[in-house]
Predict the 3D structure of the following.
Amino acid sequence: MALRINRLSCDYQCDPVGIGSENPLLQWVVQGDAQAAYRICVATRPALLDAPDLWDSGRVCGKESRAIYGGAAPESNQRVYWRVCVWDGEGAACESEIASWQQGIRAADWAAKWIGYDEGRDAYDPSVPYYCADDFMKGENHPFLPKPALLRTEFALRDGIERATLYVSAMGLTEMYLNGAKATQGHMVPGNCDYRKRVYYRAFDVTNRLVPGANALGAVLADGWYAGYIGLTPRQWWGAKPRLSAELVVEYADGSTQIVITDEGWRGCTGPWLYADIMHGAGYDATLEPIGWKEAGFDGTAWSPVALGAEHDHIPGAHPGVPIVEHWRRPAKKILQINEDEAIYDAGCCFSGVICAKVQGHRGARIEFDHAEELNEARTELHYFGNRSAQAHDTYILSGEGIETFQPEFTYHGFRYVHVFGLKDVELLSLEAVAISSALPDATVLESENETVNKVLELIRNTEQSNLYDMPTDVCARDERLGWGAEGNFFMHTACALNNNALFLRKWLQDALDGQMEDGGMWAIAPAVIMKDIVPFMGDLQSDMALHISWLLMRNYKDLQSVRAAYPALERYFDYSMRNSDRCLRFATARDWLDLGHDGRSDFDHGYGTCDPTLLGTAWFARSARMMEEISLGIGETERAAHYAEAYGKIRAAFRTFFLGRNKLLRGATQGGYLAAAAFGLLEGDELIAARDWVLKDMEKNGGVTWGTATTPVALEGMRRLGLDQEAAAFIRRREFPSIGYMADCGATAVWERWDAIYEKRFHPHAMNAFDHIGLATVGEWILTGLAGLAPEENGYDVIRMQPVLDREIGGMHAVVQTIHGETELEWKFEGEDVRLRAVVPQGATGRLVLPENVYAIRTVRGEEGTGEICNAGGVTAASLRPGAYEFIISTLI
């Protein structure tokens, strides 16, 4: 089959605008014949690609379909063009289409000033108590919610505009407008970060927004994560005064450039935005809209000069992650008319986002919206208790001019239900739910013949979409929404099974590294909002996020460039962990958070699990050592790999010495503790049999699983190590309590924080009881790697492990993963007593099909010309698969 090249990408993006790296990662996918060599050409103009003026890689032998750009660093805002030529083993060549990337603005070239408008902000009194988190019921809050600012300027342009790029940075959140039209794309621009260390910009092509002559550039500037209420704290964690810094770079056909920047020439005021806070909501008074303020020719003489300077002296850098985007919008349905003024609407599922309302009424009429994930047990009002101190309240005041549309910005809510107030004076023509969160590229196809498995997948995907918000948030509704480690880094294993999350990981890795302290320790959340509730988790499992992120970048995407850059910080962190261990024993403060060890229920107090905290901490410490060994090998640090292999041996020995009894059972272990120990290679021989028996008996005694959020991520892999694949499959398709299938049967549309969030038709009494939470959704990884059977055995799916669990009750699975080599596919389905299995291995990769030898036998093979020897060893049947498509008929032996 002839060579074909597609999916050219630069730093995982197609023709990106405003990238920050001067040495981006260039990738392509080869189809048809195998690649034997490649050549990359990069030039300042397409016409120069035959004799490139920036970089010519020369002919490079091998099947690797990626390379780090090695040419001269492009200038700020420069667009460069590239293509790749590949050859097969016979010398036949194929040339790709031309791709491009546009360099961002280097720090030395950033000319824009920080501007803002601070009227009314000095009224905030930080001494006024703010009740949140565990204290949210101890008093009444009156949050300080200042008005977002309007900022504007005008400028003139010449004829011959060829290209224009708007670079937007903010300490806070902003929307920008050019000549009346929105110029920024997506939402929550420019995103979130550790503002002590950096601030990001995003770049937008705005060529079509400009005209020769007079133009206007305007912005709304809101608190965002920078100055608003975030996490378990009052407002203004990073700073008190939001700031905007932006550059509009206009390029003309004659080669000249004009730059418009934020500076002292801008003017500011407050306007229709009454408040805008991530936790508490947004309000808009359309009667206060300055008519025409986004257009050229507006009389802004009454507006005030802007404030100059910022609380943090940062030069913006390119945002390294994915944007926050709209995923879908759908009508919300009225389900309860409370009275003539109030009604409750149902969006149909839990999600993160806002409402979009079309309304009509007299000038000054007010309509308000409350949000919550659930209704109360009586189904008569919203279950506000789960929001804790997050007010999640939006307000719109009508202008009275025809049909008006209100969609809040600079805020988001985790909700399903909306309580609408003001229907007596306002006609609500329509109400839509609008899902907004981080982009989720290259979704994995994952389907089952089993209805319950598909429903479980639906809940997990909804949970992913709700909680990837420029960081993996623990929850999306209550007053938290933090980038917690443990829950976050555990869930990213599942997220990488569901989507290509390479860019998302790159960004969160920077957040984690920014939180590293001088002694090597990592903060427990990223970005590092440092508050009293977090301190006990320092050095706990919560702090391992940078290690997990780096491992995932290496294992799933072969992003060795990012891993090498992070490696010194990872080494310092592991050294910190070893120094702060007790003879290689590590303490897990949270234990197995929210396990079912309290008489079959999760903790009614705060959430601490029942597994021995040192057993759990040491088991994960061993996993960390193994991860460091694998990362070191991946980037060629073989001596350091040996060091971490030795560290793993020491930690493993300590674990076995302190927790393994003479009866081959673990002291202080729960189901989760046993399964983590098995998953991490801490048990051997007869100990695995003893562990298997103990887990089976305990599951029978407790009526199912008891794992908490620290062991759920590896519980199903641990079951595989104990020979309990069928029991693991049975858990995924289970509908009884406790299971995700049980949640679905209770009406859940996302994964709950607790197995028993609703138990015997009653809500768990603790307020920490979210109905859209990533903690238990971590079983999603095993649905791909276990049930469907697709996983990277070598970095970047260079070798693809195909090891499905052929469960007759499930009936069949189909998975398609977009790897760096292209699509890999595995499908299996029971047909009578046999299983039909189909596999596709992309060019540049090798497949390894693995089945239990004493259970299944490969009887028929189609596509056999690409199959290596089928061998039986170590209790498994294994077949090596070269690139191509295959079909197997597998007979069952038992």
Observations:
- The mean pLDDT is 95.
- The CA atoms of residues 511 and 527 lie 5 Å apart.
